[in-house]
Amino acid sequence: MGGRRRRRRCRAKIEQPSADTPPKTPSSGSSGSSGLTEERVAPRKIPSSSSKPYEEEEVISAPERKRTDPCTLRLVLLNLIRTFYLEALSRLPPARLWSTHARGVLVAGHCYGPLSPVDNILVNTIWHDTAFPRRPTVDFHFGDVLEISPECIARIAHRSLEGLIACLLHLCPSLSRDDALCHLHLSKADLSRAIASASDSVSAPTQAAFLKAAEEAHHPMPQALALFISSVLPKVERDARMLLCVNRALTAPELDRLSDMLVPSPLLEDLYTPPPLVTSWVASVIKSRIEGCKYSQETSRQLVETALSKYAQQTGQHYELHLVCGINLFIQSEAFWHINFLARPKDAAGELPIYFFAEATVAMGEDDEFLEEDIVLCCPIKPAGIGGCGACTAQYKKLNHPIDKEHHGGLDDYDEEIGNGEDHWDYKFPQLVDFIMFDAEKDCATVRHIEKRFPPRPDGDESAENLWITEM
To answer: Which residues form the PIR2-like helical domain (predicted)?
Structure first.
């Protein structure tokens, strides 16, 4: 054991961030104060869409010959929408994010509506979690959600894009799907601007247009969402914008105010769907996955805390976990972990979290705990570029990697715009979030897909101990 650790110590060179060379900042940062002093290294924060118009934000460059390629446009939009979700997750206070809103963002927080994409995600999430609160049961209790998978983020990005396309095509039927992609690309996935770009004569989206979007995007409550966006939100849009325009994390009281204004009265009974029939076999599959996810989340939490401790020693900057946004384990001469996570400065209430990448070797401490010498690299990164790692690409893990620091699995040819160059990110249902935040009263689609994907065993055995291991 000791010999292996000494060899690793020699091989894994820890890159020392230098205070003289701080990471680059976005080309158009947020207007608010970052909360960092002159002496501190200023890591990149996810730019706020609420404080500045989208046309002023950094746009991922692309060769002109790729501009008209629909596949490329779609990939650029998916990567852009993915950053919207990372920003939305960074704006929510941790306690509410972990207990409630992580599920809302990834299941119902679609980015179409009358506001900016990030604000639409937040408003649609808060509305859904207020109107259709999850009531966990003893059988399906997970606790706080500190980790979400890159597959979950990729899936909701795909669904939002499909909703944007469907809404635009409904309002502008003369457009082709490729035309819709072009207008969404020009507008940076802002529906209102895409509509203005596509036609000067089209008015605001109707309830029918939003219903089409919600259905194409597989929203769990499409009729209720369409009614909310078209009838309820316009009445409180000004007040909602004022609450969301701050360049900091939202507070719990602000979320409560948003909840009260977005759901002023109980919904009509006919907007609710009948509860699913959860058989004993489906229940055993869900509970098995929940137990596996608890183990995975604890591993990720411990890795992040160790990486941030190492980072604090190197830089003097102290951060704590906000949310794990993706992790991958791969073998390359030995086993390595790659992980993305959001971390917020300690003792700095309201300051927005920073997006990080870390690489670690397999934990060698007692009880498989990570030690600081297991951390190969920990650094803030830009959340936009996907790719740069052959190991993660091979497993279709949509993680962000640093482009200016060496890491295992790195690629010499880094395509910052589209990452892989191919679109393999349509992840199937169900995903991790569908198990750990299962709602026995509403999640009919999850039950149907579990029955299809995990059929009962022919021998009648309802034991499902190891099902969680596959496709986490």
So the answer is: 81-196
- Structure-token pair, residue 382: 């830009």
Inter-axis angle of helices 150-171 and 207-216, nearest 10 = 140
Quote the DSSP letter at residue 142: -
pLDDT by residue (tens digit) across 260-287?
999 987 766 666 678 888 888 888 888 8
d(CA 114, CA 101): 21
Give the confidence band of 467 by pLDDT, cuts at 50, 70, 90.
Answer: low
**Mean pLDDT of the region 8-20:** 39
pLDDT at res. 420: 44
* Tokens at 276, concatenated: 């699913």
Residue 258 has pLDDT above 60, yes or no: yes
| Residues paired with 329 in a beta bridge | 337
The label of the residue with tokens 């990005």 reads: 157
In angstroms, the CA 414 to CA 410 distance is: 9
- DSSP-assigned states of every residue in 218-253: T-SSHHHHHHIIIIIHHHHHHHHHHHH-SSSPPPHH
Sole residue written with tokens 């819709």:
180
Residues comprising the chain, all counted: 472
Higher pLDDT, 362 or 466: 362
Q: Are 398 and 425 in contact (CB under 8 A)?
A: yes
438, 140 in Cβ contact below 8 A? yes
Dist. CA 308–CA 415, nearest whole Å: 28
241: Cα within 13 Å, side-chain hemisphere:
13
Token look-up 């596996």 returns: 292
pLDDT at residue 23 above 60?
no
Residue type, 437: M
What are the beta bridge partners of residue 389?
Answer: 410
β partners of residue 358: 339, 378
Distances (CA, A) of 145 to 103, 129, 139, 290: 9, 15, 17, 11
What is the reported pLDDT for 193? 94
Instruction: Give the integer Cα–Cα distance in Å for 194 and 77.
Output: 13
C-alpha–C-alpha distance, residues 375 and 16, integer Å: 12
Among 48-52, 296-300, 388-392, name the one with the lowest average pLDDT.
48-52
Per-residue confidence (pLDDT) for residue 3, from 0 to 100: 42
Q: What residues does each domain of the chain span?
A: 66-274
Cα separations in angstroms, 294 against 12, 148, 436: 29, 12, 9
Pair 29, 47: CB distance under 8 Å: yes
Alpha-carbon dihedral 214, 219, 223, 226, rounded to 10 degrees = -50
- How far, rounded to the nearest angstrom, does the alpha carbon of residue 95 sit from its chain's CA centroid? 17
Could you tell me the CA-to-CA distances from 368 to 158, 298, 303 in Å, in that order?
Answer: 36, 11, 10
SS3 for 380? Answer: strand
C-alpha torsion sign, points 288, 290, 294, 300: positive
